[in-house]
Amino acid sequence: MAELDYRSCFGAGQDVEVQKRMLSVPKIDNLDDLIRELRKAFATDHVNIDRVMDLMSSYKSNPKDWMKYAKFDRHRDDENSFYVCKYTRNLVDEGNGKYNLMLLAWAEGQGSSIHDHANSHCFQKILDGTLREIRFAWPPESSEEEEREMEVISETTLNTNDVNYMNDSLGLHRVENPSHTQTAASLHLYCPPFESVLLFDQRTGHKTRGKVTFWSKYGERTPFGAISAKLDAEDYENN
Ligand SMILES: [Fe+2]
């Protein structure tokens, strides 16, 4: 797995290698083009992080392309505070079984728990609005009784069309929509796909395993009853 903070490459701006690489990126006019090119990029088992980042950067977000996947849920005022303020995960493409491409819809003020990425690559492109990413160091292995505040490594603001990369070797993170007046949407690619993640308590460093599920698939709402019957609310990061 490559260990690369891609933003440092892109931030350089003058980097000739990056400019040369971008010249090899095909024209991507819409989300369907991006989906097609991503499938090609994952045709082999080798994950070329630069290539995927370039493709996602090349696509300029157009709400007409992705609006049907952007299903917000502002009404999760369940008594269980664990899953209040959770974004929704909406499946866009299964990438021939090699990855999941999904749109995350963040209503005002919604955010994720601190989580790992199950040894997968995580690519993220902001489609609309602004997201804040807070990265944390992995907490040291400790006993159940020991409690230690998790260490913040960095805080980054991601704006529309920014692309970000994350994997477990870079730490853990929480992502949130800091705006209380605007929604946000982001496109995420996880390779390989995963069904559960580790969730962390910032105050204690304690972790639990949570399942991840889809709020909708291909623009259609996932039947909620089938999910809620199987899972306790505390059991999952999102649905
Ligand atoms: Fe994440």
TrEMBL record:
Pfam families: CDO_I
Catalytic class of the enzyme: oxidoreductase
EC number of this enzyme: 1.13.11.20
Key words, A-Z: Dioxygenase, Iron, Metal-binding, Oxidoreductase, Thioether bond
One GO biological process term: taurine biosynthetic process
Cross-link (3'-(S-cysteinyl)-tyrosine (Cys-Tyr)): 122-190
Cofactor, how bound (note): Binds 1 Fe cation per subunit.
UniProt pathway: Organosulfur biosynthesis; taurine biosynthesis; hypotaurine from L-cysteine: step 1/2
Binding residues annotated for Fe cation, in chain numbering: 115, 117, 173
Gene Ontology MF terms: cysteine dioxygenase activity; ferrous iron binding
Origin superkingdom: Eukaryota
Cofactor(s), names only, from the UniProt record: Fe cation
Annotated catalysed reactions: L-cysteine + O2 = 3-sulfino-L-alanine + H(+)
Family note: Belongs to the cysteine dioxygenase family.
Protein name: Cysteine dioxygenase
